[in-house]
Design goal:
Layout lengths: L1 E5 L6 H15 L3 E6 L13 E5 L13 H16 L3 E5 L1 H17 L6 E5 L2 H4 L8 H10 L2 E4 L2 H10 L7 E2 L14 H5 L7 E6 L8 H14 L2 E6 L5 H11 L5 E5 L4 H6 L3 E4 L8 H8 L4 E4 L14 E4 L4 H11 L3 H15 L4 H19 L4
Parallel strand pairs: 1-2, 1-4, 2-3, 4-5, 5-6, 6-7, 8-9, 8-11, 9-10, 11-12, 12-13
Helix pairs in contact: 2-3, 3-5, 8-9, 8-12, 11-13
């Protein structure tokens, strides 16, 4: 199968998932053509079945902002024609779904009919897509896609609730490459904590929606009752306030702010517990990656997190902002080696439900069904 993938090239969840899906399908022998304004950070340069096509945006003094959507539509048209693509899969509605609609119209005028799959990832619906400047176009392009998927039932429900949706939306969850994750050795762990200290971890982009102060308050309650270190991975607008709050709570000496790093897998591999008390999560990919590392999760009961974390099995879910309850749940998991081992094993087993192989096959099945349905139009 010859598949076009359109995504943002950055470290954000939608770009990472799109690129990893392309890498996986390429390893299976399919031809993947990734279209973006820059080469995605996770694209495998050694995968001969995955090809990158850069969107060329021309500067012109008339435009205050260069019309990226037009350039993207043109790039899709040219790639479909030149590479004889069977299907286009666009990740993150803005601006990809709208540009894909225009590309499809142009191609149809040339006698080429190609299905377009739009995958909704989260803030393209819950945040950016709600802005008045974008909402009508987002709604239109969702309704005009050949097929639409959402990464969680929560996101699917919110899309239907907030937009005038006239079509079905299929839930295909995010995935994790379980083979990439595992437990670290004692030497790696010793660089962060003493043998008697638990390692608690948080990974995010440090935005307000992540409720970074809650992470610190939960850890402060944990630290009051047992030796522990908190590893904060990521960067963003809430980092400096978080460093100040750690000092105010008297836990600075036990909190490590590592910033952005490519060693997330290694850090998760030596962690004992993962904290994700977010205001909302469309899916909770960070929680899934922790579980794939055999790390149980304490999270808020919000968005798609209940679809990832099994309460009382792979961790615990508590109400948004209930830091005391989260701390008590954390202390329960960390109360003994046997309890921690049980939750860790259950977290790993649950992560396999979201394996790259299973989710990749779900997308291939969707592509195949659309291609069969499109045959009459070719």
């Amino acid at each position: 199968m010859r598949i076009g993938v359109v995504c943002h090239p950055t470290f954000g969840g939608s770009g990472v998932m799109a690129t990893e899906l392309a890498n996986h399908l390429g390893r299976m022998g399919h031809e993947l053509h990734v279209i973006s304004y820059a080469q995605p950070v996770r694209l495998d340069p050694f995968n001969t079945h995955v090809h990158f096509h850069e969107v060329q945006v021309q500067d012109y003094p008339l435009f205050l902002y260069q019309p990226y959507e037009l350039a993207l539509s043109s790039a899709m048209v040219e790639t479909v024609r030149k590479e004889k693509l069977d299907i286009l899969h666009v990740h993150y509605a803005i601006p990809h779904a709208y540009a894909a609609f225009m590309a499809r119209q142009i191609l149809a005028d040339q006698g080429i009919h190609i299905p377009v799959v739009t995958t909704l990832h989260g803030t393209d619906i819950t945040l950016v897509g709600q802005l008045p400047a974008y909402k009508p176009a987002v709604c239109f392009s969702i309704n005009r896609s050949t097929a639409v998927t959402a990464v969680s039932e929560s996101l699917r429900a919110e899309t239907i609730r907030e937009f005038n949706i006239e079509r079905d939306i299929q839930v295909v969850p995010n995935f994790v490459d379980v083979k990439r994750y595992g437990r670290g050795d004692a030497s790696a762990r010793s660089r962060i904590a003493q043998p008697d200290e638990a390692i608690v971890c948080h990974v995010s982009n440090f935005r307000k929606v992540k409720r970074i102060p809650d992470v610190l308050h939960v850890f402060a309650e944990i630290r009051a009752q047992r030796a522990a270190k908190l590893v904060m991975v990521g960067d963003g607008p809430e980092r400096l306030p978080a460093e100040r709050l750690a000092a105010e709570l008297g836990i600075s000496q036990d909190v490590l702010f590592l910033g952005k790093t490519s060693d997330v897998e290694r850090i998760l591999g030596v962690s004992d517990l993962f904290l994700l008390p977010s205001e909302t999560e469309s899916f909770g990919l960070a929680a899934l990656e922790a579980m794939a590392s055999s790390v149980p999760v304490i999270a808020s009961r919000a968005g798609g997190l209940p679809e990832v974390v099994d309460h009382g099995v792979t961790g615990y879910l508590e109400d948004i902002g209930d830091v005391s309850a989260m701390a008590q749940r954390a202390l329960h998991i960390l109360s003994s080696e046997s309890t921690l081992a049980m939750f860790s094993q259950q977290a790993l087993e649950a992560a396999h439900r979201f394996s790259m192989e299973q989710i990749g096959q779900a997308y291939l099945d969707l592509y195949t069904s659309l291609l069969h349905g499109e045959q009459a139009h070719r």
